[in-house]
């Protein structure tokens, strides 16, 4: 699995830590999703799946590099992770 970071502005150290925690959260959620859904079995190591993480909006999306039909299936599933399961940024910082 590859996660591309999309960043058009400078990120402070504190923001970077929050975003790293959020990316880790997304990576766990996506991995669980892929393991549970047998129809997502396109490669053993998930290397065929690519995602884009927008550092400004803190939203993850499926990259167009991900082959069909996985792109379409994941696009719907990722929307649910972004809207329903994502923790608040300040709550994910490990102290």
Oligomer: single chain
| Secondary structure tally, helices | 2
Largest sheet at a glance? Answer: 3 strands, mixed
Helix/strand-derived class?
alpha+beta
What is the arithmetic mean of pLDDT? 83
Side by side, the strands of the main sheet go 1-2-3
| Strand and helix order | EHEEH
Instruction: State the separation between the terminal residues, measured CA to CA.
Output: 28 Å
- Our Rg estimate from Cα atoms comes to 13 Å
Share of residues in strands: 5-15%
Features:
3-stranded mixed beta sheet, alpha+beta, disordered C terminus, 95 residues, 2 helices
Molecular structure report:
It is a single chain. The chain is of the alpha+beta class. It has one domain (2-92). Helix content is 42%, strand content 15%. It is built from two helices and three strands; from the N terminus they run βαββα. The protein has a three-stranded mixed beta sheet with strand order 1-2-3. β2 and β3 (59-62) form a beta hairpin. The longest helix has 24 residues, at 13-36. The chain is elongated. It starts with a strand and ends in a 10-residue tail after the last helix.
Walk me through the topology.
Elements: E1 2-6, H1 13-36, E2 50-54, E3 59-62, H2 70-85
Parallel strand pairs: 1-2
Antiparallel strand pairs: 2-3
Summarize the structure.
With 95 residues, the protein is α+β, with helices and mostly antiparallel strands.
